[in-house]
Specification:
The chain has nine helices and four strands. The chain is of the alpha+beta class. A four-stranded mixed beta sheet has the order 2-3-1-4. Helix 7 crosses helix 9 and helix 8 runs antiparallel to helix 9.
């Protein structure tokens, strides 16, 4: 299998006539090494045979096949060159010369091939994809938050039982915070493990290394977002459940009309409405057994 060093020795200046350069993936899949002839079909459906004169790596980020200008001439839509790559010495004089050349030919635009930093010069489709991903992530975050809130709210009976057993509200809140910490840690570790393999494969294919490229603050921002969501969706329903259980346990002050006196003038407790099956009240006395 040809390597990138072989492609460097061959050079791109040899790609003329019926010659092509292929990626290392094509070499592995089709056995198209240096000097081999491959059959191709051009954009207008014309079948051709070309000789492989160079092999390059990182085909996912560049393309699988590079044609020579002579081979592609006459088989494109406009039959014109879409772009020209010019290498200069980087001086101001070379820049002025290229600017004058572009100004003398209408329709010719001069652009820098250096990679742009950030998304300032990103094409519209990049912004559309980014907006779609953000909307999907927000929807996923809201659905997870709703599930956590519902799961915590369903534990009101459990929290009320803990309060009746003597557990203080502070102890219950501490317990729920620890459960939220375990939930957030499990989510972060699982997400990291599931995304490690795809990111490593993409980085190896596009960048030639197993780690991805991007802003460093994305990982801490993701950790903070997941942790805050877990704690908020657990803490707020827990406090609401504790306030509800405390209100049910407190009977409140007894109103004056709730105390009555019997025939003997003794005070009785508050009258509680009786629902369900009525009970008969009997005076204690000697039991009579039938013979």
């Amino acid at each position: 299998m040809a390597s990138t060093e072989a492609a460097h020795r061959a050079g791109t200046s040899t790609i003329t006539g019926n010659t092509v350069a292929v990626s290392s993936d094509v070499v592995r899949s089709r056995g198209a090494g240096l000097g081999k002839r491959v059959r191709l079909v051009l954009g207008d459906g014309t079948p051709v045979e070309a000789t492989v004169v160079a092999v390059y790596g990182r085909g996912l980020g560049f393309g699988t096949v590079v044609l020579s200008r002579d081979l592609a001439a006459g088989h494109t839509t406009t039959r014109l060159d879409q772009s020209l790559l010019v290498r200069t010495d980087g001086t101001a004089a070379a820049r002025r010369a290229l600017t004058a050349l572009a100004a003398a030919r209408p329709g010719l635009a001069l652009a820098d091939t250096a990679p742009a930093s950030g998304l300032r010069n990103a094409p519209p489709e990049v912004w559309i994809n980014l907006a779609t991903i953000v909307v999907l992530l927000v929807y996923l975050l809201l659905s997870i938050a709703n599930k956590l809130v519902a799961a915590t709210a369903q534990r009101r009976v459990e929290l009320g039982a803990l309060r009746l057993n003597g557990t203080t509200p502070r102890q219950i809140r501490t317990m729920m915070r620890r459960e939220a910490a375990v939930t957030a840690a499990t989510a972060l570790v699982t997400a990291l493990l599931l995304s490690a393999v795809p990111l490593a494969l993409l980085g190896q294919g596009f960048l030639g290394r197993p780690w991805p490229s991007g802003p460093v603050w994305l990982l801490p921002a993701l950790a903070v977002t997941v942790t805050a969501t877990a704690f908020l969706t657990t803490e707020l329903p827990t406090r609401q459940a504790l306030r509800t259980s405390a209100g049910r346990r407190d009977p409140g002050p007894v109103t004056p009309g709730a105390v009555s006196r019997g025939a003997s003038g003794a005070a009785h407790g508050p009258r509680v409405p009786c629902t369900g099956r009525p009970w008969a009240v009997r005076r204690p006395g000697p039991s009579r057994r039938p013979w």
